[in-house]
Amino acid sequence: MSSRAAPVPQAQVSVLRDPVLVLPLAVGAGLAVGWEGLHNGISGGRVAVDLSLCWGFVAASLVALQRSRWRRPRLLLAVAGLALLAADLEWFNAPGLWTLGLALEWVWLAVIVQLVLTFPDGRPWSWLANATIVAGYLAAAVGGLASVLVSVDHRDALSILASQSATDTVARARAGLGFAVLLSTLALIGWRLVSLRGATWRAQAPLLVGAALALPLMAVTLAQLTLTNQDSAVNTIARALTGLIPLGFLAGIAWSRLRRTQANDLVVDLRSSGEVTLRDRLARTLGDPTLELAYRLSDGRYVDESGAAAVVPDRPGRAVTMLTARDEIVAALVHDPALLDEPGLVESVRATAGLVLENERLAAEVRAQLAQVRASRARLVVATDEERRRIERDLHDGAQQRLVAVCVALGTAAGRAQGPTRQAFLSAQDDLEQAIAELRQLARGIHPTLLREEGLDAALDGLAGRTPVPVRVEGSIGVRLAPAVELAAYFVACEALTNVVKHAHANAATVHVAHVGGVLSLSVTDDGDGGAHSAIGGGLAGLRDRVEALDGTLRAENDPAGGTTICAEIPCAS
Amino acid sequence: MRSLSVRVLIVDDHPEFRAATRELLEDAGYLVTGEAAGALAAVAAVAAQAPDVVLLDVQLPDGNGFEVAAQLSRDGAGPVVVLVSSRDAEDYGRRVARCGARGFVSKSRLTAATLASVLR
Description:
Chain A is of the alpha+beta class and 574 residues long. Helix content of chain A is 63%, strand content 10%. In chain A, a hairpin with a 5-residue loop joins strand 2 and strand 3. The longest helix of chain A has 55 residues. Chain B has five helices and seven strands; from the N terminus they run E-H-E-H-E-E-E-H-E-H-E-H.
């Protein structure tokens, strides 16, 4: 498998420079901080929550190693875990560590805000998301620095303006800004969840839902701090809930793996499938309703499953994954770029669908060739009609004009002559007039003028008037249709009425014509002995080719009680 | 022989037909006031010559006889228009009756008698 949108080179799978070192660091530092906390009166619950969060964030970042596009989120997960631990340096009595802990107290939350609002590719979702991230870091950094400068605690190593009221003011301002940042974050998460679709939604939803569940209580905590500047048990619970974020992250990965297993079952699905197309099955398996499947023909063109020409796009917002069989590209999957976060999933599809894809590709190629043949046949009909029209005009403008001039001249000569000479002129004029009539009939059969000038309704009326048996025309079109459609319908009526006259022994015939729902329907029914069209043959066989070239149908129906109906249906637009 | 006062304009783009028709009409006693080879020329000739009858071909290089007939018959004071064509009237359907012409004569059947029957 190859991918044009985002190649996944294995060399990139090393984001945290040495992931092995991160975990011992987090565990060792966590144990040290936890021990110090317990030793200095921090509750066991709070210590357990913070250590669990720290290790949970770091562990989640290591589990996601195989997702190269999630490099930034992985980094932020680890940083959030370590920053949380850094905030707990406040549990130490050593002034340096305590001061550092106070300064970094809320940095971990700012990192989480950045993690969520830049998930999964590391870029802020929007300018508002960017502003929210900046505001979060501003509240954490400036607020932390201000706190250490005004703190009245004796462990503060950097206090230069120790003031209780200033300490309260700074704490409230920092919590208030943090509260606003979290509200904005929650609003952005909500909007994101309702606007995402398909594979993108599936890839991001677990973490976002985790954040949406976790952050409201943290916002309550900050609101409480803003109003009262008093820490409470709510803070511990809120911190514990942020564990839903790495859990959501891990749930997304588990979901992806589950669907990879489903993809491995695809080959069974492919064999047992009914009328569902391969594209639909792939779309369902990959969870991407927007997925397009384009087969690559031997000449390099791409077609869809119906054989129609397809375009493999090279534009932002769509990713293309080439599927190969026996080292040859057989198809292109055009899909949501979010699927690239799950390379194993697409790889599973490639492995299981390879043979089927090859067969489907061949079928699509046959359909494409069939479509070409049909288009070519339709073009031939149009070209033939145009040629008929040209021949009819040539006959009219050339031979017919000269012959009628001679005919008129013979009439003049007859008028000037007497006796046998006059009779000879008149006889010649009669013969010539008969020849001209036959020529006119021939020209009309090649391309009827009335049809060209007046349309099918008038042409059918004219045809009915010329037919030796009584013909009633029912219905009308009312509009002009494509010339090839009008001509095909007219010729069907001509041939059917010719058969009625020659073979049906009918007393009357009816031509019914209608144009409904973009389909022209024409039927010719007689009251004869029913043997006129026992099968479509002779002239009607050629007409069936013409009708089918226009995607229409032509059939004969014999009534057991007598009579025959010839029906033609031709799709058309007026 | 018809009255010498019947003045006829022949409109057709084929000179052989115009020449043969002129002879036919003149032998029958009609006065051929002129000939025109197209629609615009026909309208101009009618204005200039004021013929009683226009023998008008349906298919002209710069228009068709139906439109010219409708134009000439619009105010009811124009000449009598007789359409001629190498095709049959049935090849044109209802347009023959709608255009304002007095009648239609197939060119191969054009004689003094058929013309007289239309003008009668």
